[in-house]
Every structure is written in structure tokens, then in C-alpha cells.
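# nightly structure sweep
# worker-07 picked up a monomer target from the shared queue
# config: single-sequence mode, recycle default, output format = C-alpha cells
# input follows
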Amino acid sequence: MWQVGLIVVGIVVTGVVDTLVYKYMDKACAIGVDYYDKGQPAHVNPCPDRIYGEHSFDHPIFQSALLYVAYVTLYLGVIAVSWCFGGERLRGGSPPVNPLVFLPLGLCDMIGLIMMTISLDLTYVSMYQMLRGSIVIFAGLLTRFVLKRRLPWVKWLGISVVFGGMVCIGLSAKFSHKDTSNAPQPFVGGMLALFSQIFIAAATVYEERVMTQHPGINLLQFTGLEGLFTTWAIILVCLGAWWVPGKQAGNKYGNFNDAFEQIGNSTELQWTVVISFLSITSHKLVGLMFIRRFSAASRAVIDQVRNVFIWAYSLAVGWETFHWLELAGFMLVLLGNAIYYELLSSKRRTTHDQEAIEPLIDEGLKNGI
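# output follows
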């Protein structure tokens, strides 16, 4: 039993570290390319050595790409280990599938992830994390109106409770008068976090549809092809972002030369990249270990527990101030997720219900930040 407890602790700890490291990466200051504007005032560039070109690590698309580099590395590592131990079963029995089937899935993943990364830069880390719980609202609506599948009343109850939690969290941002130095545009960031879940939910519903149409596909092959398309899509976005105007170095939103220069010039950033890479892959691995023993539904609710620790840390270091509405919102989101995934019901889910819900939850958990 202690092994299960260790896995649960691993899910929470790696999830907390993953989110906080990304926020620290956003706040880190380092010198980048030579042509960065060195005459910015303190309210624009709060870094202490701004006169020498030091500035915040403001590269959300680069951070999004880093997440998928970690996933692809994990996938390749699993393939390598599987081949060493008779990995023919990775391909055996899987029917041929047109790889273009995974293109919409990769695009939804990419858009949702980029929106989440930008959101984390703009809003409070605890609010960002709590708003991610809204995925059940959009997933439920898409399941009902796109897949045309009737939802039992308990699902609608869970959606309603989560919606109430979202309202409380939004109101807490308006009335708490928090320090905006750690969240320059909390409302915009909150909206991005909320709307990003539409794309993540769309990916889950589309994933379920593909798995229904190709029931014999190997799940590792499925994940690998999906990740491959998402990685290629995000590489193309990285290249295109160079031409998008922004406040970053050279007035280019996707100035990745500046990102690499800052990482090369900052030991702090180098460590955050390494820790982020390790926490992303570890979070995925311990999550899979838990799902093998129990269910993805249980893991989804456990993953919500990390909100408490992220919020507590934010309060402790002064990133945020306490407001009872945020606490109420968190409790409602946690309760709504538990109701939606039927973890409070003594009635055992049918195999069909479990098969329908597992891909949905796994997709939402996959984007770990």
C-alpha cells in the first residue's frame, strides 16, 4: 500500500514543481541579445540590471515547445526500452491508420498549450491552475452536442458545480486587489486559461472519436503519432512567430535567439529548464503508474489537489493575497470534478462508461503545466 501512497505523492509533487517552475521561468531575468532595448523604465522592465540589457524570460511559445520536447523524449525512451524487452508488441496487431487523422488532434493540442503558457505569464499561478479544472464543462458540452451522446444528470450536476467554482475564482480576481506585478493582466490571462480548455476538450472528444473508429490501434502508437504532429505544428508556429510583432527583443514575439541567449547567460534559467524537463516526464510517468492500478478519473481529482499547494506557496512568497472566494472556487471545482467523474457514487461504472471517459481525462492531464 505504501507504493500507492508514494505514487500519489509523486503525482502531486511533480505537478506542483512543473507549474511553479514555469512561473519562475516567466519571472527570471537574464541578459539576452545585444539589440534588446536598454532604456526601458522600471515599470516596463522590472529587472535590476535592465540598463545592461537584462530582461524577463518572456518566451511562451518556446516554453510550449519545451513541453513537447520532453514528451517526445519520453516517448522515444519508452520505445527504446520496449524494444530492448521484446518490443515487437508495440506494432503487433495495430491496423494501419492514415497519419493525417492525427493532424486536427495535434493542432488542438498545440493551440490549447500555447494559450495556457501565455496565460501563466499573464495571470496568477493559482488562478491559472484552478481554471484548468473547467475542462469538464467544455468536454461535457462537446460530448453532448458534437458526439450526440446523452449525458446522465450526474454529469450535468458536476458541470454546474464546476461552473460555480469558475465564477467564484473570477470574482476573487476582481475583488481581492492582488499585487499585479506577478500578474500583469490577470483578467486576460484568466480568459486565456479558460478558453484554452475549449481546445483541450475538443482534442479529447476528437481523440475519443478516432479511438472509436480505429479500436485496434496501439495506444503507444496513438500517443506517438499525436505527439509527432503536435511537435511539427509547434515548430512551424515557432518559425512563424519570428515575424509576429511583439514587445520581445527586436520587436519580434518569437525571438528564439533571445531565448537561447538568456538561457546561456543564466544559471537560474538553465536549472529551471532541466527541472522542468524532469518534472514533466516524471509527472507523466507516475500518472501512468497510478492509472494502471486504479483509474484516470481518480488521477484527475488527485491532480486537482496540487492547486492547494500551488496556492499555499503563492501566498507564502507574496505572489498573491488570500481571498475566501478563491478558496470557495477551489472547493467547488474539486467537488464538481469528483461528481463529474462519478467518484462519489457507489455505483460502479460500466466498461463502456470507463472506456469513454479514460481518453478524455488522459488528454486533459497530458498538458501538464
